[in-house]
């Protein structure tokens, strides 16, 4: 195995361009048209909400959008944002046309949504020398922005390591934010009656299916210098979807297995008998037992239906015989 073979990491999960984004052709087409319009008109990408279950590729979509637009991304995690100053520290460094991604918005408080709405209108949240507003109920030290956590999202540079103190607050208080894009990710829709989401210009829903997981696994392995045929990727995608595995976990285990066996290419016939052994250490045994019981029940029910369709019922046999007589 070549020594320079890439390791499996978050950067490989994101499609480098929308042409490579095959898990949802409809979404890829819509994003492509939107990006073309932005490039033609010189406007920023619309403020967007991405909704989907855990590990459905929401952050990967943001990476692909940024790559297509050739703009930087500042990544925040809503779970560790403790005050308006945390938001302001990111927003005041966002460049014109760049993207600020805030993930985990399913647990966001109304006060946070209110401040994000203000920032979307380019109104500054801080820098006036007044009291530091905080979001009650959020974790961490409310008095100090949690930069360490804000810089810890895999695959994104973060914003850590600077102060929110402005050189001249009075001179900068009247300035507005640059015209950047805010993209929120959430596992559930933000209620329309929250009163602070009218600024969201696009909402896209992502799903996690066997087919989408197969596409993502195939892409990750290919970008890591490993190849798997479509049937083999489909088998892995089914396991990831059924057992709730993370895509990168599955890809890492498969890559380790291939490299340990000196393989750079694998087909369905080769990997199918090995899947249970490859993924065994990462499958929840309780969930596996439930799925196996469900599959057994469905299989038994299917066989009974087949028998009923072929063999007539006793009363039908009696009627037929009486009719013949």
Written description of the protein model:
With 325 residues, this protein is α/β, with parallel strands linked by helices. It contains 14 helices and 7 strands. It has helices at residues 10-13, 25-41, 58-69, 84-91, 110-120, 147-150, 169-172, 210-223, 230-243, 247-260, 268-271, 275-279, 285-310, 314-324; strands at residues 48-51, 73-77, 99-103, 181-186, 202-205, 227-228, 265-266. Strand 2 (73-77), helix 4 (84-91) and strand 3 (99-103) form a beta-alpha-beta unit.
Task: Supply the key terms.
325 residues, two-stranded parallel ribbon
Number of distinct beta strands: 7
Bulk shape: globular
Report, as a whole number of angstroms, the end-to-end distance. Answer: 78 Å
- Sequence of secondary-structure elements: HHEHEHEHHHEEHEHHEHHHH
Largest sheet: 5 strands, parallel
What's the arrangement of strands in the largest beta sheet? 2-3-4-1-5
Provide the low-confidence segments as ranges. Answer: 128-132, 136-152, 157-173, 317-325
Q: In percent, how much strand structure appears in the residues?
A: 5-15%
Mean pLDDT: 80
Q: What gyration radius follows from the Cα positions, in whole Å?
A: 26 Å
Structural class, please? alpha/beta
Helix proportion range: 40-55%
Q: How many DSSP helices?
A: 14
């Amino acid at each position: 195995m070549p020594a320079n073979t890439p390791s499996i990491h978050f950067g490989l999960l994101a499609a480098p361009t929308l042409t490579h984004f095959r898990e949802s052709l409809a979404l890829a087409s819509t994003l492509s048209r939107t990006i073309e319009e932005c490039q033609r008109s010189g406007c920023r990408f619309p403020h967007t909400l991405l909704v989907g279950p855990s590990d459905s590729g929401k952050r990967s979509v943001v990476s692909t959008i940024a790559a297509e637009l050739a703009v930087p991304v500042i990544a925040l995690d809503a779970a560790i944002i403790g005050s308006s100053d945390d938001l302001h520290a990111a927003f005041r460094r966002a460049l014109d046309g760049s993207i600020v991604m805030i993930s985990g918005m399913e647990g966001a408080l109304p006060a946070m949504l209110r401040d994000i709405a203000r920032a979307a209108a380019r109104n500054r949240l801080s820098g006036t020398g007044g009291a530091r507003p905080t979001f009650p109920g959020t974790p961490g030290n409310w008095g100090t922005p949690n930069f360490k956590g804000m810089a810890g999202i895999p695959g994104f540079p973060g914003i850590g390591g600077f102060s929110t103190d402005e050189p001249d607050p009075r001179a900068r208080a009247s300035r507005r934010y640059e015209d950047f894009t805010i993209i929120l990710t959430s596992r559930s829709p933000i209620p329309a009656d929250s009163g602070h989401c009218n600024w969201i210009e696009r909402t896209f829903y992502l799903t996690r299916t066997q087919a989408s997981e197969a596409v993502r696994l195939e892409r990750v392995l290919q970008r890591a210098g490993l190849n798997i045929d479509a049937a083999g990727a489909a088998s892995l995608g089914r396991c990831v979807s059924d057992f709730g595995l993370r895509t990168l976990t599955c890809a890492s285990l498969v890559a380790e297995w291939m490299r340990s066996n000196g393989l750079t290419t694998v087909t369905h016939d080769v990997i199918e008998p090995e899947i249970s052994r490859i993924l065994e250490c990462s499958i929840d045994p309780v969930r596996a037992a439930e799925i196996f019981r469900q599959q057994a029940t469905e299989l038994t029910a299917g066989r009974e239906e087949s028998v009923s369709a072929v063999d007539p019922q006793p009363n039908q046999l009696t009627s037929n015989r009486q009719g013949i007589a």
